[in-house]
Design brief:
With about 260 residues, the chain is mainly beta. It contains three helices and 15 strands. The chain starts with a helix and ends in an 8-residue tail after the last helix. Bound molecules: magnesium ion.
Amino acid sequence: MKTTRYLILSALFFGALSVSPARAWLFKEWKSGIEWREPEVIDPGSATQAPSDAIVLFDGTDLSAWEGGEKWTIENGYAIDGGNIDSKQHFGDCQLHLEFATPEKIEGNGQGRGNSGVYFMGKYELQILDSYENETYFDGQCGAIYKQSPPLVNACRKPGEWQTYDIIFTAPKFHDDGTLKSPAAITALHNGVLIQNHFELLGGTFWDEPPHYETHGDKGPIHIQFHGNPVKFRNIWIRDLSKQQHATENPAAEASKTPSESDR
Ligand code: MG
């Protein structure tokens, strides 16, 4: 009986410690000391509208933001792949959204069916392919980082249906002597499903060569591949992340501030 009463009283006492103000009285809150800059307020947009801080590369009406865009056909708010195109503006770290639909009429098979691709910095391809009940090599199917990493799952919709890619790309960095300092990385969602989780690339993506890095600058074009198939695209927008590190008002404070034992 005595033991039971002790247990109940202990539970009440220690339970009370988990709530304010008792917890605040006994413990001191830890703060990092870093003076973060207030995150910019943006309009997040919607399923069909880009966020307010995005650069719209194709809004359904024209491809003037692209070199080679005149080779494509634009109709009904979408564009049909008719040749390789490169964004006129160049990017390094970025977040890219695009929507695509592989041809409704099924023609060809394997790599010959609904093939396109989006390349970051013109060198690193995330594959676009009709992989709905269409066998090919896994590291070349839709959502693969070509010949380096198959998608974690096959999230393809049927031919002709609109699909989304949301991709976060981290650009590789090189030392002054041209050697690799840090690799490129890709995180990608296909139709809202994670298919690449910060995969660190082994280099550029090639069909006839193993992946390898070739030194290049901080930025390059977004390239959309023409592989002979009339893949449709719409709603292409990009956010430049190269200046979006966790900025502080006082960077020195971040480096010097180490919480003391008593603060913990
Ligand atoms: Mg391709």
